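just leaving the lab so this will be short. what follows is a protein written twice so to speak, once as letters and once as structure tokens for the fold. can you read through it and tell me how you think this chain folds. thanks a lot i owe you, the record is right below.

___
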Amino acid sequence: MARSRCDRIDPFMPVLSLPPAPDALVARGIFPRPAVAADADFMRDVYVAARWEEMSVTGWPQELIVAFLHDQFRLQTQHYDTHYAEAARLVIECNGAPVGKLLLHDNGQEIRIVDIGFTPASRRRGIGGALVEWTQDIARSLGRTCVSLHVEPNNPAKRLYHRLGFSVIELRGVYELMEWRVGPVAVS
């Protein structure tokens, strides 16, 4: 039987052994760290910010949108706890302040970017790209075959994923499954 996240001594400590943050991020004061229970509200707020624009066109009162998105985050968290119990849950900090979240799951063959998101002020600053490249390095170092993720077809981040070598593999519901395949290691 698979262990649930709740069976672990510290449910937020990653099972995936992560190398240090890449120098390109560290030089900018950006560090991924394991999420702790106290980060739950921050992670929820990043979720709400990511979905705010799409929900604002509903015409619903702001309080209803907030309540709906909080519930959607609760359901997403339950889904992650069930299907990605051993994912590394990370908070991304910039100069000591949280600016984003990253959830990585290693199934022994591939690394899945389960979730990645940033505060609005931290978007389009190269942080996400550097973290995806770091994830590609992790996959390489662990001998995994690929890095995969799901993305909505109209998500602007899809351009970044293409630039980093990801390809659309298939449509899964409203999401596209994208993969970056680990190539042969160059021998010098």
